[in-house]
Each structure stands twice: as structure tokens, then as C-alpha cells.
């Protein structure tokens, strides 16, 4: 039995991609499948360096379709399997993830968003929100965690495996190029020492016993003969998702109680918004901060409650309204005035948020 | 319900009679596979992946663990399973469209990596499930829904010679053969050797099976057998193309 | 201690701005402070100017990049032009005064513009390979974000394996950091 990758706890200073590799190791991920694309490459680099020591596996595939489908295969074999991608790779990844949705397979995908559409930039964006939350030809039966710090990248990568295996919905960790490449401190830990039990995995195929005699064979499909057959399956899935959603949804908020204007953001942009709200409060502005941590499912009740208390909501994101659309759907019917600061494919600083609010509030 | 007495033991009786059209070759290929599984006594080790297209109708065909995947993606799914659990015997079952068109990059790269899986590809020269469109394997001059005046090789190329390609790009240890539903006994032998090759851990194993589709060929029984036995074999040579071991054994 | 310091370092590929930023960030982290360092990368960096963004403070750090830096260090003519956007009225702008034909491009709105002969000193007194360590000394002096001992410890951690084989290299690196500090002290 190889030693645990992390004994107890230790403070570390590293890139986000390295954090993901450590988190997957700590979570007991057994196999990674991947295809190179910037800015996620170093997840594979660190993983492949560590796999022999900790008895894990890796397969470099021919493209992201294959990376996604082999990851599906790894899960079917009963392993904590994951892949990582970005941008155009995430586009291809939607096909295998659609199959994972159809078969309720606990596939874990780490996405480090880059600019779009097309090849765009390898640097950064928040333009993969729509695709990651609702991609594929389906109903978005998936979980998406949007992280903001290296600590969260570590925490939520571990959590993603547990959410996926507990609820059997494919689960994404949505980072970005900034988080992938920047270095900052965090505490690495063995989940067990924090009281986090990893949800056990089980094989779908290759189970013991003679199928048809000792046990029924596993027969899994994603094709149905008639509409009603599909509808029955989907009704069950949607009911399961609706039931799990409040348990899964997470958010972070402060100063919303008496706020006139609440700034809504997610991921790395929420760091700028947090700093901006603090600065604006000190300057006497009645602003609040709301950040969905899960983009799918959204913390709908809390968003609606917040929208019901304030006069204005300003959605800030490095995309042209991808979070904004999700928020508007969640708070549909609210009379809150919706404002925005959209910078598709570009980072947002706290200075920009502050000046936008001052522009609005005078 | 009439079940043939020769039904392989690993077939699932509850899903028979099967759903393939009358005269379809899939049943014969799956019979050959079933017999090979029985003879090797590996029913409990098999993980069977089937593609989209007519091959998907085999999703509940065997008393074996089965995953029906996406069009062209059976090879990577089965690869992922085998990589994660090398104890299983993994079979990827697909048609010519799935293997040579939409999933060709997967077939090429699984071959190049010598994945320890067995791929069985049913070649019936067109897309059956979608209604008979031209496939990579459509014969020169053959009429299909998307080549209504016959396939013109000048415009659309010649039929893909899959086993020859796989043989060319696989490292040593691979097993490659082309069988036909016109000779199920021989086909079963090829499939059995392909499975044994996986069990031995030698490398990728690939069997193409020439098959029939009277529904889309719009042929009667005689014309159907004539096409698969006489026409297709003019272009697609039946036999073992690559076997593990010294080079001189090849192409015998 | 106290307020957050924002630093932008820019140079040509091979001038070592990224490793300088990384070493300073790691030194600050070792001191138990909050540090965030992000490079530019990929297509942006290939054939372009290499920019390192570094923030050090005592509170958790906000956005990884910023609009206005407290200190900008530019080590080539292109870097001088590229980093003008990060200069504000409170910015100290440090450049190598051996760069030719950049008088026009130097920022007009900076708090201070300091030219230091780092390239010349590295060539004449030390060795071109420690040029970036001189720059590191300059940054440390100009910002006081980390103690010099901690900076040296961070260098030791990163290059210790080389120093083991050639102890003179350690001496040269430590001398470089001190020279960098002196260069800035003399113009401040």
C-alpha cells in the first residue's frame, strides 16, 4: 500500500494546476485521462510525475472526445476517474459528458477556462459557464463548482468526487487560466484528518459472479426506443436532481442585509468584487456581495431572497452575461434592477468594480 | 418464440428473438462472438461495448456486462474500462461508420497504442440504422441514399480497407483479421483468436466481419449472398492479416 | 508590514523576470505573508514581453492582476512601452538605464522614475547570469516587501542544488542581491 500523498496538513505555495493534481491524489482518484490543452496542461504534468509513487494511472488520449469517453470507461470500471480540459477541449468534452448525464455516471472534469469563441486566448475567461452548466444535448443534469482561490480549488476538487459519487451526476470544477497559472498559498490536507470521508466507489461492469446466473448482467444504454420510455427516465432523473439541488447548492455572501446594490459574481472575479465591496462599504456605499459557488445548481432560494431585499443587482463577470442569464432565470419575477459589468475574456480588477459602482451611485 | 438450438450459452434468452432485420448479418457475427466466449469460458470476464447504429441493438444481447455508447466512441469507452480494470476482457463492437468514419481517430490511436482490447467491426458497406447512406466502405458504383447514382471513387474515394490499415499501424503483438458472415465457423475462429490475443496481453486485436444488409441493399436472399460472397470479397480480402509472432507468418 | 504591494516586472524572454517574481513570492510566503504571483503565458508570451504580476500583503489578495502597480520594473525597450499601462501617480517606475532610445517612452505620470545600471553592473562586476538577481535586490529595496535574509533563503531553496556543486555561485548571487539594493538606494 503506497503512502498517503499528504500526511496531515501542510501549507503550500504553488500553481492552481498543481493544486488540482494534489487534490485528486488526496481524494484517492485512481486514474486520469487527458489531452493537452492550455491552460490545464500542468494538471497532467504533476499527475504523471506523481502516479508511480502513489500507484495511480494515466492515459494520454488522442483528443478530448476520447479523454472524456475513457474517463467514462474508468468510472464504469468503478474507479475515481477524472479528466481536465479547457476552451475548445471543453466543447468536445460535452459529448462524453452528455453520455455521463444519460447514464448518471460520476465523471469528474476540471475546466480551466480560456478565452472564446474558438481558439481565442489560452489565458483566461469566464466564458465557459453556459457550456459547462448546460452543455450537450440535454438538461444540464450536472454539478458545477466555481472556485475562487487555491484553497477552494483543493477543497472543491476533493468535494467534486464525493458529490459525483454520492448523487451520480457528472461534476465539474470550473476554474480558469488565472487560477491555473497563478501561485498563492493554501493548506493541503489529507481529507480524513478533516473528517471528510470519501464516498465509496463501485464498479458498474466487471463485477464478480457469472452474469445471468449469479447476478443480473449490467446492461446500460443511452438510447430509447420510444418517447415515453425516455420521458419516464428523465422524469426520475429530474426529480432526483431537484431533490439533490438544495443539498448541493452553495454560496458565499456578506453585507446583503441592508444593501441597496448587491454585486453578484463567481469564481476568480469574486475576489475583485469582495475587495471592491469592502472598499465601497468603508466609503459609505450600501453595497453587498453575493457569490454562487455552485453555478449548477444555483442557490436559487438565496438569490431570490437577496434580490427581494435590494434595489439593484450588478452582475460582474469576464463573459458577456453568461452568469447574468442564469441569475435572471433564477430570480425571474423579481423587480430588482439588473446592472452589469461584463468584460468577455478579460480579467476584472477591484478598481474597475469600485469605479463602476461609483459611476452608478454618484 | 422459436429459439434456435445452436444458441450460444452466453446469449441472453430474455432478449431473443433479437431485433435485427431479417437477413441481417449482425446476428451471425454475434453468434460467432457468443460461441467464442463460450468456448473460452470467459462470460464472467467480458465487458461488451456497442456503438450507435444497428450495433446498438446488441445492448442487451448477452448475459455479459454491456455498455451501449455513442456513435464512434465505443473504442475509447472500452479502452477506459480496460485501462482502469485490466482484469476484464473488453470488446468494442461497432459498424463501419462508427469505426472508419466518426470514430476513426479512436481506432487509429487505439491501434497505435496497442490497446489490450478486442474490436469487432461489422462491415455492411453503408449506414444501416439511419437508412442506407454511403459509408467509408461503400463499394465503387454501389448505390446508396447519398450516392444515388453509385459511389464515384473520383469524388468520394475508395472503400476503406480497415484491417489493412490497422495491421499497418499496430505494433507487434496485434492480431488483425477479416472474416465474413458467409463463413461463420472461420469468423468464430478469428474472433476467438482475437480474444485470446487480448487475454495473453499481446496487443490490440481487430476483426472486421463482412456482413449483409438486405433491407438497405434492397436485395433478395440470393442477391444478398452474392453481394457479400462475390462482390465484397473482390475488394475486401478475407483472412488473417496480422498475427502475433515472427513477421514471416503475416499475410499467409 | 501593512498595505498590499503590487509589483509588475517586465522583460524579454530569458531576462528572468518570472523567476524573480516567483522567488520573491515564495520568500513572502515563507514569512507567512499573503503572496500571489501570476505570469503571462502561452501565445501571449512567445515572442512578446514577459510580464510577472506580483502582490504581497497581510490580507487575502483580491484579483490576480491589477490596473495600477506600486512598482513597475521594465528591463527592455518593449517592456518599458508594455508596462506604461500599469503606471499611476503613486507608481515607482524602475528601468535599466542601459536601454537605448526610450527617453520618449518613459512614463510621465509616475511618482518616481528610477534608472539603474543593472545590465552594466551584471556584465562588468558580476556575471550576466545574475542580472535578474540584481533586479530582485532592486525590487526588495524599492518595496521592502520581504527581508533580504528571506530572499536569500528563497534563492537558496531554488538554486541550492547548484550552489552545492559550486559555492562561488552562492556568493555571486548574494552579492548580486546586495548590489541591486545599493543601486536603488543610490537613486531613491
What does this structure look like?
Chain A is 41% helix and 20% strand. With 362 residues, chain A is of the alpha/beta class. Chain A has 2 domains: 186 residues, Thiamin diphosphate (ThDP)-binding fold, Pyr/PP domains (Rossmann fold, 3-Layer(aba) Sandwich), CATH 3.40.50; 110 residues, Rossmann fold (3-Layer(aba) Sandwich). In chain A, helix 9 links the parallel strand 11 and strand 12. In chain A, helix 1 packs parallel to helix 6 and helix 9 crosses helix 12. The termini of chain A are far apart. The relative contact order of chain A is 0.12. With 252 residues, chain B is α/β, with parallel strands linked by helices. Chain B has one domain: 3-Layer(aba) Sandwich (Rossmann fold). Chain B is 35% helix and 17% strand. In chain B, the strands form 2 sheets. In chain B, strands 2-1-3-4-8-7-9 form a 7-stranded mixed beta sheet, with helices on both faces. A two-stranded antiparallel sheet of chain B has the order 5-6. In chain B, helix 7 links the parallel strand 7 and strand 8. Chain C has 188 residues and is of the alpha/beta class. Chain C has one domain: Pyruvate-ferredoxin oxidoreductase, PFOR, domain III (Pyruvate-ferredoxin Oxidoreductase, domain 3, 3-Layer(aba) Sandwich). Chain C contains 6 helices and 6 strands, in the order E-H-E-E-E-H-E-E-H-H-H-H. In chain C, helix 2 links the parallel strand 4 and strand 5. In chain C, helix 1 crosses helix 4, helix 4 packs across helix 6 and helix 5 packs antiparallel against helix 6. Classes of the chains: A alpha/beta (362), B alpha/beta (252), C alpha/beta (188). Chains A and B meet through helix 3, helix 4 and strand 9 of A and strand 2, helix 2 and helix 4 of B.
